[in-house]
Design a protein that fits this description.
The protein is an alpha/beta fold. The protein folds into three domains: about 160 residues, AICAR transformylase, duplication domain (Cytidine Deaminase, domain 2); about 150 residues, AICAR transformylase, duplication domain (Cytidine Deaminase, domain 2), CATH 3.40.140.20; about 50 residues, Helix Hairpins (Orthogonal Bundle), CATH 1.10.287. Helices cover about 35% and strands about 20% of the residues. The protein contains 14 helices and 15 strands. Helix 3 packs parallel to helix 5.
């Protein structure tokens, strides 16, 4: 098959629409459903991300994509009991490494992952399929599917769930093209390999960079490679915990990603873990309630007349002082940036979210100020010398 006709492009008025190969066959097979234009954009970007994560770490990898940027990305490390609970997978028993990877990728930012497109580095197993079945998702791409897993996924969305199988040996041409306003752009593909060597140039006084941090920094940078720029990613324990994408200002990107990382940590607090939800409440409704509870709009779910629809008992207000005290317990977080930090304010903001390890290209006229700010907090910062813009 050299081409596949699509229902429409980014929007219903954009017709005709198709994907096609100028040379050779398409490297994918649609096993179920009718993936659309944006589905394929998410699928192909996500597949590249998880393929690189698998090569860099040797671990099964997963990502949850929305609108051509990852909402979460992770490798298949075991989950703590706390993470199993906040990711709503504590009832699934022992998880396979691939299922753990997707639980992490989906769970990092469940609000953003709602209606995601999933990419898996490995053959989708039954455990992962059972996890996906109960989430709101538009589709999946993987190099293969266990027969039972495929049948489970086919039941989603009344039988219309988009399931794509990709040839894992497919290699694209080294030159890529893109049209904007009828004008064709051409460039070499970004084949930059991200590994430990990128973190060798440590420019701070503290030069202690453990292997676990190298894995998290690699996760952050590989994630950024497929995130709409400007972009910043916080990572911890084998997964991205906060991704800021597409902001014109880098400090706004750092703040956005930092807020998401904070929310990930706040969801593990005793105040949130102790919430008693009413029986039968849907998973998206629980996610939305928690997001409100830990945010500025907490009265929307705590006030009389509101909490009764969500909780069995009225929750106590999670005060700003209590939140700050809990956030101060977060440490050992890694932070990657797709371009240099122009000011130390990015490091100040990162410090408030427990960042200890930083990887950025370097090259700003204010590098000295950024390094000085890192030294103030005893952070480790590596200048990678590479930029990772993605548009």
């Amino acid at each position: 098959m050299t081409e596949l006709e699509l229902k429409y492009g980014c929007n219903p008025n954009q017709k005709p629409s198709r994907i096609f190969m100028e040379k050779g066959d398409l490297p994918i097979t649609v096993l179920n459903g009718k993936p659309g234009y944006i589905n394929f954009m998410d699928a192909f970007n996500g597949w590249q991300l998880v393929s690189e994560l698998k090569k860099a770490t040797g671990l099964p990898s997963a990502t949850s994509f929305k609108h051509v940027s990852p909402a979460g990305a992770a490798v298949g490390l075991p989950l703590s009991d706390t993470l199993k609970k906040i990711y709503w997978v504590d009832d699934l028993g022992e998880l396979t490494p691939l299922a753990s990877a997707y639980a992490r990728a989906r769970g990092a930012d469940r609000m953003s992952s709602y209606g995601d497109f999933i990419s898996l580095s490995d053959v989708c197993d039954v455990c992962t399929a059972k996890m996906i079945k109960r989430e709101v998702s538009d589709g999946i791409i993987a190099p293969g599917y266990e027969p039972e897993a495929l049948e489970i996924l086919k039941t989603k969305k009344k039988g219309n769930y988009a399931i794509i199988q990709i040839d894992e040996n497919y290699k694209p041409d080294p030159i890529e093209h893109k049209q904007v306003f009828g004008i064709t752009f051409e460039q070499g593909r970004n084949e930059l390999k991200i590994d430990d060597e990128l973190f060798a140039n440590i420019v701070t006084e503290n030069k202690d960079l453990p292997e676990s941090a190298k894995i998290d920094l690699a996760i952050s940078l590989i994630t950024l490679k497929y995130t709409q720029s400007n972009s910043v990613a916080y990572a911890c324990g084998g997964q991205a915990i906060g991704i800021g994408a597409g902001q014109q200002s880098r400090i706004h990107c750092t703040r956005l990603a930092g807020t998401k990382a904070d929310n990930w940590w706040l969801r593990q607090s005793p105040q949130v873990m102790g919430l008693q939800f009413v029986d039968g409440i849907g998973r998206p409704d629980r996610d939305n309630a928690i997001d409100n509870y830990i945010g500025e709009d907490f009265m929307d779910v705590v006030a009389d007349g509101a909490w009764q629809r969500i909780f069995k008992e009225q929750p106590k207000i999670f005060t700003a002082e209590e939140k700050r005290a809990w956030l101060d317990k977060l440490s050992g977080v890694s932070l990657g940036s797709d371009a240099f930090f122009p000011f130390g304010d990015n490091i100040e903001r990162a410090h408030r979210s427990g960042v200890l390890y930083v990887a950025e290209p370097g090259g700003s006229i204010r590098d000295d100020n950024v390094i000085e700010t890192c030294n103030k907090y005893n952070m480790v910062m590596a200048f990678t010398g590479i930029r990772l813009f993605h548009h």
